[in-house]
Design brief:
Helix content is 21%, strand content 32%. Strands 7, 8, 9, 10, 11, 12, 13, 14, 15, 16 and 17 form an eleven-stranded mixed beta sheet that branches.
Length: 308
Amino acid sequence: MAKEKRPRKTPAEKAKAQYTGYTVKEPMELMEFLASKMPDASRTKLKSLLSKRVVYVDKVITTQFNFPLQPGMKVEISKDKGRKEFSNRLLKIVYEDAFIIVVEKMEGLLSVNTERQKERTAYTILNEYVQRSGKQHRIFIVHRLDRDTSGLMMFAKDEKTQHTLREYWHDIVTDRRYVAVVTGEMEKDHDTVVSWLTDRTLYVSSSKYDDGGSKSVTHYHTIKRANGYSLVELDLETGRKNQIRVHMQDLGHPIIGDGRYGGENTPNPIGRLALHAFKLCFYHPVSNELMEFETPYPPAFKKLFLKG
């Protein structure tokens, strides 16, 4: 008699099979909970599960041993032991779950590869990282940061999530803010810059009138003025290439370290472009939960405002 063919597992069933799942019945710390479920494992072994980033609480990778669990939470341990601790001096993982990764990128690192540049980028570094869990895993681009800009950015871990984020970006992202140090003292405490930007490959041109370019809107708020500089917080309504850099040039206050839009004589006292994406808030593309991430202003920016 012909053997019955086993039905093929759906991707969701396959993903489920990779985890051992437990539901929390009473409040306790994560380490205590793991010890109760794995009585034969040593404390060192349990700690290594956390550092290898294979323990999830409600679908979020959790490495904190004293994380407070509440009844109803779901703890999952991935059977995939290939995942190693992530460590890279140019990139820091701020948050990761089954659908997205939020990272803090250092200045000098490209977000993604271009046809001309085949060097290591945030995209290739993260791709290598997720592929330790299996060659089928991949990273998908959602948005970019200029090479010389540091700060928070997000990648998707599957095509459907990428599509959701790209398609509904303006509904999903509630707050995306930058901080910059610009030359000179800003005239206004807050205002909005509107112009039409056109990508000319090597630079982006700006027009006060609709010349066929993309309408671009930047709101700004001046935090501090001192020593011939201004510290400015910027809130993007649109996210065009080089938008903040061009808009600051339009105001006559280019960002320090910006040789492209400020000219070669733009001061560069900190040896980098003084632009940092410090805040990213959005509704999770799958759970719809509000996620809020914030990094401190870079210390080098603050130093420029100290009294000499």
